[in-house]
Structure formats: structure tokens, C-alpha cells
Amino acid sequence: MYYLFIFFAKIIEVAFMTLRVVFITKGEKVYGSIIGFIEIVIWLFLIGNVLDGIQDDPLRMVAYSLGFACGNYLGSFIEEKLAIGLMTINIIATGDNGRKLADVLRKKKIGVTVIDAEGIEKEKNLLIIHAKRRRRGEILKLIDETNIPAVISVNDTKVIYGGFGIRK
User: Fold this and answer.
1) Positive or negative, the Cα torsion across 110, 113, 116, 118?
2) Helix/strand/coil for 35
3) Which of 31, 42, 140, 161 could serve as 13's disulfide partner, Cβ 3.0–4.6 Å?
């Protein structure tokens, strides 16, 4: 029972640690600080219990280490579901296809900037979308449903000022 306590407490602590780092890097300092407080309280409690007698009971190290590994996974999974922050989607499509895709996206209230570009053989359009990360699946599904061939890259974006549908 004691090992399960160490294991699950460490999972919770590391999941909070992962979320704290994400919140702070996304500019949410207050949330990051609150989560950091909870994280360190759990950590201090765990360290006080795990380090005492660890030489006599190496299974504590195993429970602690497994909890750490699982906590990283859980924290990453939670962060992915929360989809905190903003993203930039860059789409490269051939000329006419790029304009068609931009029209489809705009009809769904997705702000798109279209820039004329050139590829090796053809004229291209570079479409740039800034949006909240939680809309990632919706936007990519919409692009996929058009069956327009395109190169798509998605990047995390820290701060955006202004723009269509984004407030900071």
C-alpha cells in the first residue's frame, strides 16, 4: 500500500510539474505559480517519506521512479487535451488550390492570410493561420476534407497581438 501511495503521489506531482512548465512557457504565470505551489507541497511530502529509510527499502526507489515516468506521460496527455495556447498553421498549395482552400476556411470563420509564393515548377500560395491550439483538430480535418493537395506544418506560437478571432 505504501508503494502505491508513493507511485500515485509522484504521478500527480510530475503531472503538475509538466503543466506548470507549459503554463509558464505559454505566458500564464499566475496559473503556473499556483500549480507550482501544489507541486512543491506534494514533492516535499514525498521526499520526506521516500528518502527516510530508502537504503533499507529499494522498492521505494522503484515506486518513485515509475511514478515519475508515468507522471510525465500523464502530464503530457493532459496538456495535449487542454491545448493551452496558440498555434500557427502554414499551408503550401498550388495557386488556384490555395485560394480555394482559403475560401473554404474563411467560410468557417478561420482567419487566413494568403501570400503568393513560387515553387520549383509552379506558382504556389502560402496560407498562414493563427488560431487557438484547441482548434487544431477542427482546422486540420477541414483542410483534409477539401482533398486539396498541400504541405501543412503546425507550430506552437507564444504570443499574437491582434488578428482575426484571437484576443490577448
Assistant:
1) negative
2) helix
3) 42
Q: How far is CA 163 from the centre of its chain?
A: 21
> What is the Rg, in whole angstroms, of the alpha carbon atoms belonging to the chain?
23
- Displacement of CA 160 from its chain's centroid (Å): 16
What is the C-alpha to C-alpha distance for residues 18 and 13, in angstroms, rounded to an integer? Answer: 9
C-alpha cell at 95: 495557386
Residues of the chain with CATH 3.30.70.120: 86-157
Q: What letter represents residue 22's amino acid?
A: V
Q: Which amino acid is at 120?
A: I
CATH architecture of 86-157: 2-Layer Sandwich (3.30)
Q: Which three cell numbers stand for residue 27?
A: 505566458
Per-residue pLDDT of the chain (168 residues), as tens digits, is: 788 988 999 999 999 999 999 889 888 899 999 999 999 999 998 888 777 777 888 888 899 899 999 999 999 999 888 888 889 999 999 988 999 999 999 999 999 999 999 988 889 999 999 998 999 999 999 999 999 999 999 998 876 666 666 655
Q: Which residues pair with 132 in a beta bridge?
A: 86
Query: 14, 64 in Cβ contact below 8 A?
Result: no
